[in-house]
Amino acid sequence: MKSLHFNRAKKSLCGRTLRRLLGEENGAVAMEYIVIALLVAAAVVGLVMVFGGNIRNMFDKTNQTMTQSTVKGVEAVGTANRTEQGKLAAQNDTAVSAGNKLGGDFSTDRQVGKVDE
Description:
85% helix
């Protein structure tokens, strides 16, 4: 009975995997795969060590460029807004002086939303 359970366990997927890893007739193949995996890992580590500084510099330059362009963009928008505000202020002054000529009360207190109490 124990032999039947043992044979059934050896034929299952888990049993076949364990037999391969633990070294029945296919242990050498598993060891070759382990060696290949270690060589690939060593190659990746080596490439990162060689090119890591260049990659870091590339990302730093990209970050600097994006930051500078963002700051320049914000400054350009701010300049455009200040120009527009200047034009609107000039138009407002023109409208206030025209209203005052017509006899209205267009004082600066009323322009900014202050209400007489």
